[in-house]
Amino acid sequence: MDDVGSASSAGTREDTRTRILAAAADLLAEGGREAVSTRAVGAAAGVQAPTIYRLFGDKRGLLDALATYGITRYLSRKTEHEPGDDPVEDLRAGWDLHVGFGLANPELYALMYGDPHHGSTSPAAAAAFDILAGHIGRIARAGRLRVGEERAAQLVHAAGSGTTLVLIALPEEARDLRLSSLAREAVIAAIITDVPVPAATGPVGAAVALRAVLPETTALTPGERSLLSEWLDRIAADDAP
Q1: How far apart are CA 118 and CA 17, in angstroms?
Q2: Can you give the residue ranges of the HTH tetR-type domain (predicted)?
Q3: Which pLDDT tens digit goes with each residue over 162-216?
Q4: Do 88 and 144 touch, CB atoms closer than 8 A?
Q5: Which domains does the chain have, with CATH numbers?
Q6: How far apart are the C-alpha atoms of 16 and 3, rounded to whole Å?
């Protein structure tokens, strides 16, 4: 009986938390960050201020949770798309989805990515980056990545979020979405080659490609695999133009 009561209590707590975050997200979309006061959120969610403090600590905690809530919504959209045959096209689609989400949810996006404190270390933000890293890993395994996987993922993330924030800052009638396309293709050109990397980029490309498939090898001991991984990472890091 106690277990049933505990489960019911936990479910009610989570329902209340979700209702508060949904109300906060609506207020954020309508009036920006300043509209997300504990009083306004409490009124919109039908709870008292002490409930918000108990669940989130303070307004900063509420905003942190709201950033995570926003990234979680974004992730639910990204995971709806099944991988295609071409990992580069999947990367393009992911970029466009990212920018589109930001333009459709500017205040939430600015909270998520405009302040490095918000979302940058949350589990949801890490999961979002993992999805991007997964795209990059597929490209590496296809032998089409000309730089190290980590650098490629960081570059795509930086360029994508920066482009989105720039577009958000412009009046809607002044936005030129070709900026996003140009930035996307510039990044792709910088990290991807159409020719298999061993032929196109020498030892760096070969190291990147081998590093991507190293976890699949069975001929090496764990120690040997770890040592080879370290060597390949050092070669792949020597990828400056």
Answers
A1: 18
A2: 14-74
A3: 999 999 999 999 999 999 999 999 999 999 987 655 544 566 666 766 676 667 6
A4: yes
A5: 1-57 (1.10.10), 70-236 (1.10.357)
A6: 20
User: In sequence order, what are the beta bridge partners of 145?
Assistant: 192
Q: How far is CA 53 from CA 10, 56, 61, 66, 121, in A?
A: 17, 5, 9, 14, 22
Please check the confidence at residue 160 and state whether its pLDDT lies above 90.
yes
> What does the alpha-carbon distance between residue 21 and residue 35 come to, in Å, rounded to a whole number?
13
Quote the pTM value: 0.71
The residues near 151 (Cβ < 8 Å, ≥ 6 apart) are 191, 237, 239
Residue with tokens 């309508």: 30
The one-letter code for the residue type at 21 is: L
Dig out the tokens for 166 from the structure: 């720039």
Nearest to 124 by CA among 56, 67, 71: 71
- Rounded Cα gap, residues 1 and 4, in angstroms: 5
The pair of three-digit structure tokens given for residue 63, joined into one six-digit string = 């905003």
Q: Which residues neighbour 27 within 8 Å (Cβ) at sequence distance 6 or greater? A: 35, 36, 40, 41, 44
Helix (H, G, I), strand (E, B) or coil at 147: coil
Phi, psi of 58 (to 5 degrees): -160, -170
Sequence-distant (6+) residues with CB within 8 A of 22 are: 45
